[in-house]
Amino acid sequence: MALLKVPTPPVQWRCNVPPTTLAFPNSRSISAGRGKGREWNWRVKCSSSSSGAEIEKGAGNFGPGSPVRATNVLVVGATGTLGRQIVRRALDEGYDVRCLVRPRPAPADFLRDWGATVVNADLSKPETIPATLVGIHTVIDCATGRPEEPIKTVDWEGKVALIQCAKAMGIQKYVFYSIHNCDKHPEVPLMEIKYCTEKFLRDSGLNHIVIRLCGFMQGLIGQYAVPILEEKSVWGTDAPTRIAYMDTQDIARLTFITIRNEKLNGKLLTFAGPRAWTTQEVITLCERLAGQDANVTTVPVSILRFTRQLTRFFEWTSDVADRLAFSEVLSSDTVFSVPMAETYSLLGVESKDIVTLEKYLQDYFTNILKKLKDLKAQSKQTDIYF
Amino acid sequence: MNTSASIPFSRMKGFMFFNDVLPRKSRLVLAPRAADPNAGKDSNVSDDEVQKQQRVMQQPPVSLSLDDVNPVGLGRRSRQLFDEVWRKFSGLGQISRTIRSDDQEALDALLVREGPMCEFAIPGAQNTTVLVVGATSRIGRIVVRKLMLRGYAVKALVRRADQEVVDLLPRSVEIVIGDVGDPTTVKAAVEGCNKIICCATARSAITGDLFRVDHRGVYNLTKAFQDHNNKLAQSRAGKSSKSKLLIAKFKSASSLHGWEVRQGTYFQDVLATKYDGGMDAKFEFTENEDAVFSGYVFNRGGYVELSKKLSLPLGYTLDRYEGLVLSVGGNGRSYLLILEAGPSADPSQSRLYFARISTKVGFCRVRVPFSLFRPVKPDDPVLDPFLVHTLTIRFEPRRQKPVEVNATTKQDLRSFKLILEYIKALPTGQETDFVLVSCSGQGIEPSRREQVLKAKRAGEDSLRRSGLGYTIVRPGPLQEEPGGQRALIFDQGNRISQGISCADVADICVKALHDTTARNKSFDVCYEYIAEDGRELYELVAHLPDKANNYLTPALSVLEKNT
């Protein structure tokens, strides 16, 4: 696994303030922090052995005497399952939110509708990053490469570039989401990358918080709840692995409590849901709440493992193998959960405010079943008219 | 790269297994590469391409008509099937998953955008249009975002719609260009709005600016909003439920008709009557076109009163109103308002209810909610506005406080003068129509504080008399920090001393829109603090804004209405 041998590149950064002013190539982001006293023009240079990216950008408004407001946050990966909840929570709490999204044909309109600012950049193109960081106090990084793309581009090279830029541009806090137990499963590339990124972040000297997560409840809906209601086949494994799923809205809420707590700087926190569930238990719960039996297809973990082993033999299927790597974790009876009592008391949160999976899925099914009823009632009405 | 040899093997494992799963037990056959319509396509190492090259033929087990064996159609269908199965299969072995875009769309609608599962969203908010005045202000910006997150339709009144402003506001906010100081633009802005949140403030402390924005601006908004409500009501052939009901207007000599001046004493005291100077009162229309009720009461325990049997327009009853507003002037005495209620057919069953009102020297408007009226006989039931048939204004020398206007002139508290302009009934309603962000006066430069507060208070007053359901929020000095972190104190009476974050003020504004306890209340709000010695007697209500609890209702329910 070549990936594991990626050395942690040393971060080198320096900045100096030249007497001459530079032309700003990107006026859009400069304008975000305009009108605050003197404008210092920085010349930032950062390089790393892995990306080799040479960034030369002017940036205004974070020189001495004009502090960046603590309410200016940049959310990386804002269109994702967690990212969008982070954006919503941040906007509601009164933060000015900037979202870093990849340029795409269908832009992330919903972010703009909520009142966030959207800037286009791509972590795999390091030259696009610095402009998005101007005037930003806190970077919240909840980006992860899509499963279909090579895992290294965004999750490692992109993140390294982002962290280096953040360091060079004086970002005051960097929040990184990692995966629980990522240090224990180096055989899974994504977890290994997350673990390496944690280390890299620590070594970078940035003021940071690492939050390790277990699983999202939102993901279960598409995976189990929807197919059960549509009477399609549901795929599950017989893995004994237990995951403490958590509502992303709760994660977002706890995240901002964490960010505001200065005592937690540099700490590693793990957020887990109230209870750890196996796949089978989740399916049973869904069946009970939906009031119908699921057409369950249980895939033995051994088949998943076998497929992975098989795909690893060939160079051209190594991506597939990487993606199936989680099956290695599944085959062990790992529990993705941690006792949260200490974290709750640290953050001043009560455990009753954290949504349980039962409650979450129950809400979902009641709402959906009610909607279906309404639809049926409507269609009956129209029947009469016709 | 000999792909065709290796793939079938790697897939074969899967197929044997899929065979059991597919709803229809169909025989799966590997298509030879030659039969693949896209066979000429360059093979790629990526997995998607590999999948594409794989064709799984699906053959119906029994009937074989020629239409069914169209190889392209079959190939396409089987590939879809295979993709689906592979997607699910590979999904099991991954940490993160991609949901297909069409699924994503449906899920988003429920989980993130408008569904009940999504945080912040308020059911039915789509049908409410909120006009945010001062949408680019520190509070306004957050108010707009909060409204968007909750699913409201939002209109924003801004003075200039240049790029900077447009970038500041969410994309789907309807932008109206105008100035609160200009009634015509305000009229256009309130068009189609159900509620108004006003967090505009003058940009300078110049008196002219203050007057234009903080005073006239609020007046223009309330007026335009009431006009709009009336227009809507007229189109439904009715009267707006938000407009006031005129009970009496004293603008001509004839309007005094029906008002009766009476006098009486609370007790008969033979000895006292002997030495008393008597009492007198008259109600007249003066040359200055004022309706003046004046006189004196030198008797101990005596009183004079002005009374009228109410005659409401056909179809109107006072139970749709929640109080009275009187526009009066005079020398600042206090009076008793007495309502007589009971079945009109049988006057003997009438019950009396009273409320004390105090006036100022010069003109003022006095709001008296019906809830303030107490029965004269303590055992009587609470006032039912539906049954009210007579209104009485009574003056008595008891419990008068000297007015501090001119300490040198000696006031005789037994004489009075009350100039009446109008008496109206205030419409009732469940929710607030207009949320106004005013200020507590803390943190303003002392030299300008008087002017700023004067303009703000004048604006508040014009909102209070408009008849609209109002909520007036007077925050302490604003701080730009995230909201929801610290407990808030809600209070009435200028006692607060702390600052508050803009986001918390915005949250209060948005919560107040649908909170019945917020209707017709004015209150100060600031961060929690430890009361100084000697002042801790006041009951200040502190609440922590949080996800789970609605802090506003309990905080406001203890505060007084219509202050």
TrEMBL record, chain A:
Highest taxon, organism lineage: Eukaryota
Signal peptide: none
UniProtKB keywords: Photosynthesis, Photosystem II, Plastid
Localization per Swiss-Prot or TrEMBL: Plastid
One Pfam family it belongs to: NmrA
Main location class: plastid
One annotated Gene Ontology cellular component of this protein: photosystem II
InterPro entries linked to this entry: HCF244-like, NAD(P)-bd_dom_sf, NmrA-like
NmrA-like domain sequence ranges: 72-306
Protein name according to UniProt: NmrA-like domain-containing protein
Annotated source species: Sphenostylis stenocarpa
From TrEMBL, chain B:
Residues of the NAD(P)-binding domain: 134-230, 449-515
Lineage per the UniProt record: Eukaryota, Viridiplantae, Streptophyta, Embryophyta, Tracheophyta
Domain of life assignment: Eukaryota
Residues covered by region (Disordered): 33-59
Residue ranges of domain NADH:ubiquinone oxidoreductase intermediate-associated protein in the record: 277-377
Pfam families to which the protein is assigned, alphabetical: CIA30 (PF08547), NAD_binding_10 (PF13460)
Protein name as it appears in the record: Uncharacterized protein
Species of origin: Sphenostylis stenocarpa
Signal peptide: none
